[in-house]
Amino acid sequence: MAAEMAQQETFEEEEMGGPLPLSRLEAQGISANDCRKLMEAGFNTVESVAYVPKKHLLAVKGISEAKADKIINEASKLIPMGFTTASEFHQRRQEIIHISAGSKELDRLLQGGIETGSITEIFGEFRTGKTQLCHMLAVTCQLPIDQGGAEGKCLYVDTEGTFRPERLLAIAERFGLSGEDVLDNVAYARAYNSDHQMHLLQQASAMMAESRYSLLIVDSATALFRTDYSGRGELSARQMALAQFLRMLLRLADEFGVAVVITNQVVAQVDGAAMFSADPKKPIGGNIIAHASTTRLYLRKGRGELRICKVYDSPCLPESEAVFAITSEGIGDEKD
Question: Can you tell me whether residue 291 is helix, strand or coil?
Answer without folding.
Answer: helix
